[in-house]
Prior knowledge:
Blueprint: E1 3-4, E2 7-8, H1 13-20, E3 24-27, E4 30-40, E5 67-72, E6 76-83, E7 90-101, H2 103-110, H3 115-118, H4 122-129, E8 145-148, E9 157-160, E10 174-177
Antiparallel strand pairs: 1-2, 3-4, 3-8, 4-7, 4-10, 5-6, 6-7, 9-10
The chain binds a DNA duplex through strand 5, strand 6 and helix 4.
Amino acid sequence: MTRLANIDFSADSLLVARQLIGVTLLIDGVGGLIVETEAYDQSDPASHTYAGRTPRNASMFGPPAHAYVYRSYGMHWCMNFVCREPGHGAGVLIRALEPTQGLELMRERRGLDKLELLCAGPGRLAQALGITRALDGQALDAPPFQLLPGPPEPVELLIGPRIGISKAAHELWRFGLKGSKFLSKGFT
DNA sequence: TCGCCGATGTTCT
DNA sequence: GAACATCGGCGAT
């Protein structure tokens, strides 16, 4: 069992994706509250791991509570947290944060002042937190990562279909923090 | 406010 | 050669 921030990362990615809402993610002290996630699994046609292991997705088949970082559309970085036991190819895409720590550094990296747009999307939050391939395969319980538990009482969740995919697009595997102004897109 | 489009690396057909 | 877990700029509404 791999437990971090009161979450069992050896569990199913759907469960981990729900539990991550409200957790604080910091990289070198910069980041904020996770407000939006999506679950992926090897049995899922939309997942990078559906067709098996490749050099790109190798860390998704590694130990849980590690990072999987990949390049999206040739120009952005996106980050997943690996779930389940090694070999399952499951993970959770971190899609949006409410910025709380290191605001000035994030504004500088993004070239943007507006707080609501600093981390509203997987590519945007990667840029704001300085995420690159250098973090691929890194453990989440060691520097530069910090995961801090969310509130003890359960948060109110929004649930909807995942964004930007064409396969398995009907699955309701996207989760958000109800009432948050920092989501990448609204839940309808 | 909405929708189209181009940028551009990696993987798959 | 096409598709892609995206984003920002542009023009039309």
